[in-house]
Amino acid sequence: GNCISPCKNDVEILYVAPSALATASGASPNDPVTFTELQRRLHQLRGNLIVRFLAGSYDLRRSLTIPKAPKRGYIILENFDGEVVFGGPSRFRSHDAKFAAVRLEGGDFLLRNISVRNVGACVSVPKGGEANNVRIENFKAREVHDCILVDRYAARKADDWSIRNLDVRGYYRVGIRLSGVDTRNIEIDGIHLDGANPAGVNACHVGGVQLYEGVSKVHIRNATIKNNVGRCEKYAQGDGIEADDKSGAPHHIRIENTTIENARDGALDLKARSVELSNIRVLKGPKSRYGFRFWNHRGYSCKDCQIEDIDGAMIFAQDASVIFENSYFGSKGRLC
């Protein structure tokens, strides 16, 4: 099979710079190729490839598309000698999932030590994508519409992902959205998601992490999620972590060592099966309404969970059963 780090004797290393000569080979840091040339070579790739970006800002005119994997090897994108920023046109409030910094038609892919700014999405899987075996590490995003996006309403595959040390600040719609029955086995560790942005405005249904359409086997840990406050004309929205069962219930969800602050609707708003929570802290914010919201399913559990005093209900359960163990709730809120 493919190597998580390409096999030593079967790997090409390609250097890329924000500007370069058209005749460059990319074989060394002193002879890098352009972003456009990188895209061409990706579609011709047959073996394993490490792409090393020289420091600087890369002005994206289109997404960097990772092609499907059967005819190629493993691909690594990483920085080489300093901060690397992929920047797009200002699309902060406009949903343009086609303009993702990285578009994963295929998997067997590692992205690390890269930053993005002003794009429709950081990393997306398009309709028909088969993005299995994906690693995203030490990744930063600022002022984006969405960041990690495996979206709804179309067939996509996203199996065996690891997202580690993800820092997203100033998103308009969502930090991470995972959707579909073929999206599963997702490890999310060490993330910081902050919806507060320079414009001071979010989408109505803003969220830190959103789980939809039967996604399964998702493990979230060591997370900080805050400032998900939707701008809506009627009922105010905005959740820290949301799981919705309209088109298939998400299931086998584990969330641990997570702090959620200032979510307008619910810190956790869950309609899912087989949900285990542990060491969850819900902190009050100026716009907080609910702590935990549980719906439609039995068997939710929460161990070592804490909720600060909030103005609304700390725990809301409808057609659901929840077991709390060794958990603490503030004195001023209400249970219902």
Can you walk me through this structure?
The protein is mostly beta strands and 336 residues long. 3% of the residues lie in helices and 52% in strands. The chain has a 25-stranded parallel sheet that branches. Helix 1 links the parallel strand 1 and strand 2. The model has no long low-confidence stretch (mean pLDDT 91).
Mean pLDDT, to the nearest integer, reads 91
Radius of gyration computed on alpha carbons: 21 Å
Terminal Cα span: 52 Å
Outline: elongated
- Give the strand content: over 45%
Please describe the biggest sheet, giving its number of strands, its sense, and whether it closes into a barrel. 25 strands, parallel
Query: Percent range for helical residues?
Result: under 10%
Number of strands: 25
Task: Give the helices and strands, then pairings.
Blueprint: E1 11-16, H1 35-44, E2 48-53, E3 56-59, E4 64-66, E5 75-79, E6 84-87, E7 100-104, E8 109-117, E9 121-124, E10 134-150, E11 158-179, E12 183-194, E13 207-212, E14 216-228, E15 239-243, E16 251-263, E17 266-270, E18 273-283, E19 290-295, E20 300-303, E21 306-307, E22 313-318, E23 322-325, E24 328-329, E25 334-335
Parallel strand pairs: 1-2, 2-5, 3-6, 4-7, 5-8, 6-8, 7-9, 8-10, 9-10, 10-11, 11-12, 11-13, 12-14, 13-15, 14-16, 15-17, 16-18, 17-19, 18-20, 18-21, 19-22, 20-23, 21-24, 22-25
